[in-house]
Write a structure and sequence with these properties.
The complex is a heterodimer of chains A (about 100) and B (about 325). Chain A is mainly α and about 100 residues long. Chain A has a single domain, classed as ACP-like (Non-ribosomal Peptide Synthetase Peptidyl Carrier Protein, Chain A), CATH 1.10.1200. In chain A, about 40% of the residues lie in helices and about 0% in strands. Chain A is globular. The two termini of chain A are about 20 Å apart. Chain B has about 325 residues and is of the alpha+beta class. Chain B has 2 domains: about 150 residues, Gcn5-related N-acetyltransferase (GNAT) (Aminopeptidase); about 150 residues, Aminopeptidase (3-Layer(aba) Sandwich), CATH 3.40.630.30. Chain B contains 9 helices and 15 strands. In chain B, the strands form 2 sheets. In chain B, strands 1, 2, 3, 4, 5, 6, 9 and 15 form an 8-stranded mixed sheet that branches. In chain B, helix 1 crosses helix 2. Chain B starts with 7 loop residues before the first strand and ends in a 20-residue tail after the last helix. Classes of the chains: A mainly alpha (about 100), B alpha+beta (about 325). At the A-B interface, helix 2 and helix 3 of A face helix 3 and helix 4 of B.
């Protein structure tokens, strides 16, 4: 079960760039920003662990100067089912939504 | 950029999986366990595995999420709940999608079984994934109290209170009556009926517990009980009070007697320290302080709880409030 990819890859709010930079920071030198694509799934493609995603959330919060982001709303649907993975673009859309931008 | 290609699939754990799961826990945590222990642990007093899940890669089990079915009394109603226990994923498969697949398989089983509440005692590593990724609420830090033992801190001498302390081999129907007496002392309590107590502390597989009870001198009814164990993993032996239960509005003498007897048993077994979990709002907390138990700050982690659906959240209000809970070491898989 994976979220559908956004149909366009525009990044008017700069959220995608922010997310990609944060992913590169978490993953270290083996994953430079230019190797991270919007279509990459955090788990299956980038091999990020759940702890790495937690660190990613912390970095995003710091970069965005915000309190806790409700990241769990990306993974847990209202009916309680759990998504198995998300794409980089999904996270960028989420960041854009929660920082007042337009996805 | 692609991770190691493999097909990961998560599903409910089945009876035939326990040997593989034991091997997985050995590889991941270095703990020795076996099919009998796992069957006992994950079937709970319900006698059936309900919500544990495994992750398979090319038919090999590489991940496990263990949940123990328990009954919790919440605001006057008994509910089937799931106590989170082990989460183990082999290092090379420790990816977000593996963790979330396992979680989803387990959650689906919980819902299918009509389980609406999950809780667990998370360690510092598990706390952030549970709260940040899954939205589970951290209710409270682990309410640890410790008491030194040894020559400088001797246990109380025998007292002549008239209380009759016994060491029951198991938990008989008197404990069912005792549970009926105390079951609404706190809004949220694990159901401590005889079936649960026998599963947890008497008919165990691979664990030994010392059971103490105070009987009423005239009627023989149960006035309180304690369950003890010794954790030999620690340097110098650590005595642990897994459970200490007395009625909330009764004379505290039964609690004093049980605590004193517990400390004497630990001392006779050469323990150098004793510990217990007890929330500050409970009636037993001040009694423990009088016996020189000292509250200790604990690291990240602690009690987490989550309703599994929005409907459950409506039916089970207030689970995020620590003062509604009664929690003991034995309500976790720590001991």
């Amino acid at each position: 079960m994976t979220r559908p990819l956004s149909s366009d890859n525009k990044d008017p709010s700069g959220s995608l760039e922010t997310v990609v930079a944060a992913i590169a920071q978490v993953m270290g030198p083996g994953t430079p920003p230019h190797r991270v694509r919007p279509t990459d799934r955090l788990g299956a493609d980038l091999a990020m662990s759940s702890l790495a995603v937690v660190r990613l959330a912390g970095i995003l919060q710091k970069r965005l100067g915000r309190g806790p982001l409700p990241l769990h709303t990306l993974f847990v649907k209202p009916d309680g089912t759990v998504l198995h993975d998300i794409r980089v673009s999904d996270l960028a859309e989420f960041v854009s939504l929660h920082t007042g931008g337009t996805p | 950029m692609n991770a190691t290609p493999c097909t990961l699939s998560a599903r409910a754990a089945a009876i035939g999986d326990w040997d593989s799961i034991a091997g997985l826990l050995r590889r991941v945590f270095g703990v020795e366990t076996n099919r009998d222990i796992l069957c006992w642990k994950y079937a709970g007093s319900e006698g059936r595995t309900i919500s544990s899940a495994v992750l398979a890669a090319d038919r090999r089990i590489v991940g496990f999420l263990g949940q123990i079915p328990v009954r919790i009394r919440v605001a006057g109603h008994d509910r089937l709940a799931a106590q989170g226990a082990d989460v183990a994923i082999e290092a090379e498969y420790r990816r977000l999608d593996a963790f979330l697949s396992l979680t989803d398989a387990s959650t689906a089983s919980l819902r299918a079984a009509g389980i609406s509440l999950a809780y667990g005692i998370a360690n510092s590593q598990a706390t952030d994934p549970l709260s940040i990724l899954l939205g589970e609420q951290r209710v409270a830090a682990t309410p640890l109290l410790v008491r030194p033992l040894g020559r400088l801190f001797p246990p109380p001498a025998h007292s002549r209170t008239g209380a009759n302390v016994v060491r029951p081999g198991g938990f008989d129907t008197r404990f069912d009556r005792f549970w009926l007496r105390i079951r609404d002392d706190y809004p949220i309590m694990l159901a401590r009926d005889a079936a649960h107590l026998n599963w947890r502390y008497a008919e165990t597989s691979g664990r030994a517990y010392e059971r103490l009870a105070v009987e009423h001198p005239a009627t023989g009814e149960i006035e309180g009980y304690a369950v003890l164990t010794i954790d030999a993993r620690h340097h110098g032996r650590r005595g642990r009070i897994c459970d200490l239960v007395t009625p909330r509005n009764a004379d505290p003498q039964a609690a004093h007697t049980l605590i004193a007897e517990s400390l004497r048993w630990f001392q006779s077994n050469k323990c150098r320290i004793a510990d217990i979990w007890m929330f500050r709002h409970t009636h037993l907390h001040p009694v423990l302080l009088r016996h020189v138990f000292i509250p200790r700050k604990t690291n990240a982690g602690g009690l987490h709880a989550a309703p599994l659906t929005p409907e459950a959240a409506m039916r089970i209000p207030g689970i995020e409030q620590p003062t509604r809970w009664h929690l003991s070491l034995g309500d976790s898989d720590t001991v």
